Amino acid sequence: MPYREMQLWSNLVTNPGMMGVFKIPEVKEVQYDIPVNVIFILTKGCCDIWNTKVLRSAMGAHFKLNIQKLGWEEMKEQLSGSNWFIADNNTITSSRSSTSIVDLVENISLSSYHSLKYSGSDEISLIIGGETEGISEEAFSLVASLGGLRINIPLGNDIESLNSSTALAVIIFEMKRQIKGVN
């Protein structure tokens, strides 16, 4: 395809000179290395997971993951046997500090991510909130109703929180280290 024609189809200032067209994959059962469901809370107005920039940054992971759009009740049904965790930076922002969410948060135990035992778990479901909006009241309510835990990564030097993907990487690494016995 001529470069100028390819430029018409690309949203990049300088396209890389190659292009692919793919159908969004059907949801299918995938066998993963560790039994962890990662639940990202994507709120209205956040980036589309099929956005071209997101696809490029994920480097093909979209086509190896079981990505689904589910409501909280559907999630509860599908993942009923899970041990539930919320990655929580242990702060409540003023924009969401209603009495009900404060009560929910205070009634869910908080532990450091590395102090828990993940090995022996048949299935783990981990909820990660967005960096701007954080964890929703519905997520806290679900985890509270299922006896789940809030987990955090202890930080120093007055750092309040990590980027969501960085926090996820740290927590998933610890889960895999324990489950697979990797040191």
TrEMBL record:
* A GO molecular-function annotation: methyltransferase activity
In this protein, which residues make up the domain named tRNA/rRNA methyltransferase SpoU type? Answer: 39-172
GO biological process: one example: methylation
Q: Which UniProt keywords apply?
A: Methyltransferase, Transferase
Indicate the secretion signal residues. Answer: none
One Pfam family per UniProt:
SpoU_methylase
Q: Which PANTHER family match?
A: RRNA METHYLTRANSFERASE 3, RRNA METHYLTRANSFERASE 3, MITOCHONDRIAL
Q: What is this protein called?
A: tRNA/rRNA methyltransferase SpoU type domain-containing protein
Q: What is the lineage of its organism?
A: Eukaryota, Metazoa, Ecdysozoa, Arthropoda, Hexapoda
